[in-house]
Amino acid sequence: MYPLKKYSPLENQGGFALVSAMIFLVLLTVIGIAATNTATIETMISTSEKNRQRAFFAADAGIEHGKIIMMNAMKNAFVSTGATDWDVVLSASQSGVESVDYKTDSSDKESFIWIKNRSMGSIATYTVMARDNEDDTNVFDDTDNIIYLTSIATLADGATAGIEIGLSSVLDGGSAIAYSAQAGSGSGKSYKSDDANTMTDFTPQTSIDMN
């Protein structure tokens, strides 16, 4: 009789290739899912940044529109009454102008909406409002020829952006002799910092002789 050979499971390599293939497939699946998630996140980030830029440019368009309206209102007020301040824009007496309390980081400030939900086609809408820079206790009375102009834009998908500038104007003898503006409310009054607070101080940086 032949002696029985001892059987050891460790010596049986049957099925090893199948197990290895399954482990390899699992690893490939995990890598594929991770790559898909990364691509999805990158796409979302890119879309978000694009929407932020669109909202910013829409708000900037509102600022430019608002500046034209503000200057025309002051010019007309000077021609008709000789006024040389911004009081004409700090009022809801004109047609289409709405008085609102605009919430800021510190307190409610009286603002006057001159442009409300102006459509830029299917891209965005913007609202533009003016308010006194609180040079005194009367929000309806400009005593230093400086006001704040705020533009808030909203995209169709809900993304928003806001820009606030200070406008300073001096009239003399029937002609505008100086105009200056400081845009941005971030660090150093620029757009390089992500500071969403409203402006609390404004000092004209430049003057342009318009004679």
Description of the molecule:
With 211 residues, the protein is α+β, with helices and mostly antiparallel strands. It is built from one helix and six strands, in the order αββββββ. Strand 2 (108-119) and strand 3 form a beta hairpin.
Largest sheet: 6 strands, antiparallel
Give the overall form: rod-shaped
Alpha-beta content class = alpha+beta
| Percentage of residues in helical conformation | 25-40%
Oligomeric status: single chain
Number of strands: 6
Strand order of the largest sheet: 1-2-3-4-5-6
SSE series: HEEEEEE
Strand content: 25-35%
Mean pLDDT: 74
Unreliable residue runs = 172-186, 189-195, 205-211
Radius of gyration: 32 Å
In DSSP terms, counting alpha (H) and pi (I) runs of 4 or more, how many helices? 1
Query: What is the CA-CA span between the terminal residues?
Result: 125 Å
Describe what is shown at a glance.
By secondary structure, the chain is of the alpha+beta class.
